[in-house]
């Protein structure tokens, strides 16, 4: 490849050249004939100050740019290097926009050549990694990266990344390259001629593509099914007893012997061998994944019966497959199989993808998704979407590409059937709680027959079941479905159906006129119906200082003309939906009679469109159930986004009593179910989890294995006594007090603080006030719902900075793993009681009260304690960690129930007093 590429990276004073931000460093690397032939870098005088957070991010301070040239002095050199070259950068629009602005200001012509974005190219060619940040790509591809966020180092690693991506591009089969070339005109990068050259080279070479299966113009990786080779250096142990006798004192690669871990191994093994149910609370740091995987595998191998492992999060599933199973292969002496099995919607429908690939759509996310999937199909054997990192638009598109119950499998390439087949031969089957429930409730089993189950993250099982059995209908979902169907003169699939019918000369114009009318009415009337719901909710629950209102309703007790009007319009919507479905079914039957002609036109995909009508009918049925039926054991509520559109409503339902289901469908049917988590007990007992999961009549073994960490030496718990009670002041005043104390703590601890909230309103107010107090921008503030991005993205951003404060709610209370120096301080602003207006909690409390129980002690308190333990557990992740937990809620020591929170924690030192005295103690301890 003879083309010349100039890889550029810039460090700047900010994000916007239009607002006066300037370049402070430039790095350039020249590539010719796929070799680095020249390098150039320089600091640049920006003729303005460098903000503190930029200095912290880049390590470039004012001293380093003293005496540096201004950009206009370097412009001739930069322009010369860029002649007849591709402009390559990691996020090319950022670097190019800055460079163009500086060139113009210096009186030089702007760059008008081709450009390539290595972020975009990485997304296409490495579609399965979690992050496309340069530092993480460098780590994955094992590229040296000495000084991240300095232009010379970043340009060098971007150049090496680009060369690695070129190699990946050249390894793709020709049909995939041809498809990518067809799509490339709609990408940011100018790839068309580059791809043309790669395709030409491949045609001239002897290209071996036997590892691929080809189907309708796309390449797929062939499935491999061989058992893994025996990798262990040990032999003879084919039972758990032999293993424990021989290997407890022998060092094994990748495996660390821990006392608590061996205890848990024996407990899991005993539960399976004696066919007992068991609850095991395993403290942080004992290595519980291996503690249950090892005995599960030996049991499955020795008894020739599979063991199912169910987790709540994808993160834990990935950890089991990528980190723990390889260690397991070093430990045992026999080859074994592990399979991952999830719901159908996790897997790609090849037939739907081929239709999607050939649909004309210039939308960027759509084109990027097509490119990613084309490359991914050359790598994946599973077809599981969880392997992919799709763009936001791609995640929405996935719902049209996933396998569903009506999907007709492509012979030998049905990814769900592949997964089921692998599971049939597996010793260990890894799945998730939602799929486990689907298997327990389905007419035909989805998992292979099994009697032994290990449930990790078991504290989530009840909530997952409540969501699984519940219903949810939103205006947005209905609107999207109607838009996808569209009218015959719009962009939806009805227009495409009409085109096919016209080609077939079916004479069904009248049907399309009637369908257009029904769809137009449904669009208008659903808009109006959701507006009526919003008005109804707002009049009954007009709350201030909230972004979301939840209104619990009971269909048979709601009264008034408004409710009557809502029901009347709903009946009309149900009737019109039934008309729509009937007419579309008639049309489908007519098309079925012309299947041969449709095949000749290569329009078989038209039948896929009708799955949307099934989905739409189910939505309307769900609304009918939500608003027109009643059940004392089901809670229903409406949620209104106060600042959202006038019809931004979601309607929910959930069962409030699942004990019977778990007792009858799970524990009575299985020989042994082991439930484990770091947080199962409250105040030292298992009574709460036993009651909620219907285990009372099964007398499960209850085992607590404490964390091996020395919390007395590693942690201090501090409770400031000089914060006002939230009930005595306004929310704004309370947020101001919290912000002041957070700044003081951050200044003494140098940041790296996680602040946990139970209320998004309080989080937003506090973050806003801290921003005003953080005048010198010493601390980087990252706030969930304020800073853009997912929890994982915000956590990664937090890791980048030495002095950062992360504000989080909900999912930040658990699953965030920040060992060592990455986190030294946690602040729990409020004890994590569920909000009093939570409809599910409210309904469960009423039921407990009706049964003569105490809702606070039987439900609210245990739930809050488990959440509190999860938040506390974010701090200490290894035996070397050290840190402090501040709790701003004085109820921890003043309320009668506070002792239950404290007694649920490991033994540790608790200090209460004015913040200044606590900080003095903390400084002495840390020093």
Automatic annotation (TrEMBL):
Which SUPFAM superfamilies does the entry link to?
A: P-loop containing nucleoside triphosphate hydrolases, Ribonuclease H-like
**How is this protein named in the record?**
3'-5' exonuclease DinG
User: What GO molecular functions are on record for this protein?
Assistant: 3'-5' exonuclease activity; ATP binding; DNA binding; DNA helicase activity; DNA-directed DNA polymerase activity; hydrolase activity, acting on acid anhydrides, in phosphorus-containing anhydrides
* Recorded superkingdom: Bacteria
Q: Which residues form a coiled coil?
A: 577-604
Binding-site residues for ATP, renumbered to this chain? 282-289
* SMART domains in the record: DEXDc, EXOIII, HELICc2
What does the sequence similarity comment in the record state about its family?
Belongs to the helicase family. DinG subfamily. Type 2 sub-subfamily.
Q: Which organism is it from?
A: [Anoxybacillus] calidus
InterPro entries, alphabetized: ATP-dep_Helicase_C, DinG, DinG/Rad3-like, DnaQ, Helic_SF1/SF2_ATP-bd_DinG/Rad3, Helicase_ATP-bd, P-loop_NTPase, Ribonucl_H
Motif position, DEAH box: 456-459
* Boundaries of every Helicase ATP-binding domain copy: 247-511
Which UniProt keywords are present, listed alphabetically? ATP-binding, Coiled coil, Exonuclease, Helicase, Hydrolase, Nuclease, Nucleotide-binding
Q: What EC number(s) are associated with this protein in UniProt?
A: 3.1.-.-
Which principal EC class is assigned to this enzyme?
hydrolase
Q: Which GO terms describe its biological process?
A: DNA replication
* Name of the gene encoding the protein in the UniProt record: dinG
Which function does this protein serve?
Answer: 3'-5' exonuclease.
């Amino acid at each position: 490849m003879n083309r010349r590429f100039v890889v550029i990276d810039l460090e700047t004073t900010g994000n916007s050249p239009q607002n006066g931000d300037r370049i402070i460093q430039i790095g350039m690397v020249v590539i010719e004939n796929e070799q680095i032939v020249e390098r150039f870098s320089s600091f640049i005088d920006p003729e303005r100050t460098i903000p503190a957070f930029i200095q912290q991010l880049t390590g470039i301070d004012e001293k380093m740019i003293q005496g540096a040239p201004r950009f206009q002095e370097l412009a001739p050199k930069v322009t010369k290097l860029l002649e007849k070259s591709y402009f390559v950068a990691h996020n090319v629009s950022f670097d190019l926009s800055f460079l163009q602005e500086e060139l113009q200001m210096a009186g030089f012509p702007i760059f008008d050549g081709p450009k390539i974005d290595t972020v975009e190219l990485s997304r296409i060619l490495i579609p399965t990694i979690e992050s496309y940040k340069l530092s993480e790509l460098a780590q994955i591809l094992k590229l040296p990266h000495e000084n991240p966020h300095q232009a010379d180092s970043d340009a060098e690693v971007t150049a090496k990344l680009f060369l690695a991506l070129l190699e990946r591009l050249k390894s793709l089969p020709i049909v995939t390259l041809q498809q990518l070339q067809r799509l490339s005109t709609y990408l940011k990068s100018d790839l068309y001629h580059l791809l043309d050259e790669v395709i030409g080279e491949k045609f001239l070479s002897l290209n071996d593509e036997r590892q691929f299966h080809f189907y309708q113009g796309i390449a797929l990786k062939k499935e491999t099914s061989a058992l893994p080779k025996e990798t262990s250096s040990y032999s003879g142990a084919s039972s758990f007893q032999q293993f424990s006798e021989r290997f407890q004192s022998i060092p094994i690669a990748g495996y660390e012997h821990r006392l608590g871990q061996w205890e848990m191994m024996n407990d899991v093994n005993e539960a399976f061998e004696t066919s007992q149910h068991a609850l095991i609370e395993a403290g942080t740091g004992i290595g519980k994944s291996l503690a249950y995987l090892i005995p599960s595998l030996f049991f499955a191998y020795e008894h020739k019966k599979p063991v199912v492992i169910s987790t709540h999060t994808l993160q834990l599933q990935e950890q089991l497959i990528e980190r723990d199973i390889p260690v397991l292969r070093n430990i045992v002496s026999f080859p074994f199989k592990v399979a991952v099995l999830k719901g159908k919607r996790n897997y790609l429908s090849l037939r739907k993808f081929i239709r999607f690939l050939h649909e004309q759509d210039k939308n960027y996310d759509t084109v990027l998704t097509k490119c990613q999937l084309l490359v991914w199909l050359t790598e994946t054997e599973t077809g599981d979407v969880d392997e992919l990192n799709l763009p936001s638009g791609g995640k929405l598109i996935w719902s049209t590409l996933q396998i569903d119950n009506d999907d007709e499998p492509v012979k030998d390439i049905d990814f769900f059937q592949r997964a089921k087949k692998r599971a049939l031969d597996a010793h260990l089957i890894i799945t998730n709680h939602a799929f486990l429930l689907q298997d327990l409730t389905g007419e035909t089993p989805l998992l292979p027959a099994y009697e032994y189950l290990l449930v990790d993250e078991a504290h989530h099982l009840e909530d997952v079941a409540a969501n699984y059995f519940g219903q949810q209908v939103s205006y947005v979902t209905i609107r999207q479905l109607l838009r996808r169907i569209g009218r015959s003169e719009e962009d939806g699939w009805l227009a495409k159906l009409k085109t096919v019918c016209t080609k077939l000369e079916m004479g069904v114009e009248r049907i399309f006129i009637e369908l257009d009318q029904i769809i137009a009415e449904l669009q208008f009337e659903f808009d109006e119906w959701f507006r009526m719901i919003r008005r109804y909710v707002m009049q009954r629950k007009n709350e201030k200082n909230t972004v979301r209102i939840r209104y619990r309703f009971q269909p048979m007790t709601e009264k008034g003309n408004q409710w009557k009007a809502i029901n009347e319009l709903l009946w009309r919507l149900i009737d019109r939906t039934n008309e729509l479905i009937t007419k579309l079914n008639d049309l489908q039957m007519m098309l079925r009679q012309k299947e041969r002609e449709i095949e000749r036109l290569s329009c078989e995909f038209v039948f896929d469109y009708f799955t949307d009508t099934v989905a739409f009918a189910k939505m309307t049925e769900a609304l009918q159930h939500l608003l027109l039926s009643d059940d004392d054991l089901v809670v229903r509520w409406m949620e209104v986004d106060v600042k959202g559109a006038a019809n931004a409503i979601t309607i929910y339902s959930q069962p409030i009593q699942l004990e019977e289901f778990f007792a009858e469908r799970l524990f009575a049917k299985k020989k042994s179910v082991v439930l484990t988590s770091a947080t199962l007990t409250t105040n030292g007992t298992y009574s709460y989890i036993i009651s909620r999961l219907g285990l009372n009549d099964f007398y499960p073994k209850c085992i607590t294995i404490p964390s091996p960490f020395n919390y007395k030496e590693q942690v201090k718990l501090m409770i400031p006594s000089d914060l006002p009670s939230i009930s005595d002041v306004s929310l704004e005043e309370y947020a101001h007090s919290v912000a002041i104390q957070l700044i003081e703590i951050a200044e003494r601890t140098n940041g790296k603080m996680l602040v946990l909230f139970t209320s998004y309103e309080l989080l937003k107010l506090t973050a806003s006030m801290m921003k005003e107090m953080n005048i010198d921008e010493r601390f980087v503030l990252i706030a969930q719902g304020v800073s853009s991005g997912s929890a994982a993205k915000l956590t990664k951003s937090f890791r980048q900075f030495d002095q950062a404060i992360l504000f989080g709610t909900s999912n930040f209370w658990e699953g965030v793993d920040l060992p060592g120096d990455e986190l030294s301080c946690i602040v729990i602003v409020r004890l994590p009681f569920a909000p009093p207006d939570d409809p599910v909690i409210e309904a469960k409390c009423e039921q407990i009260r009706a049964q003569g129980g105490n809702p606070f002690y039987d439900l609210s308190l245990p739930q809050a304690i488990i959440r509190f333990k999860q938040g506390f557990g974010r701090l200490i992740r290894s035996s070397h960690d050290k840190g402090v937990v501040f709790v701003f809620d004085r109820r921890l020591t003043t309320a009668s129930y506070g002792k239950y929170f404290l007694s649920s924690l490991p033994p540790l030192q608790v200090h209460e007093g004015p913040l200044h005295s606590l900080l003095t103690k903390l400084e002495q301890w840390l020093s």
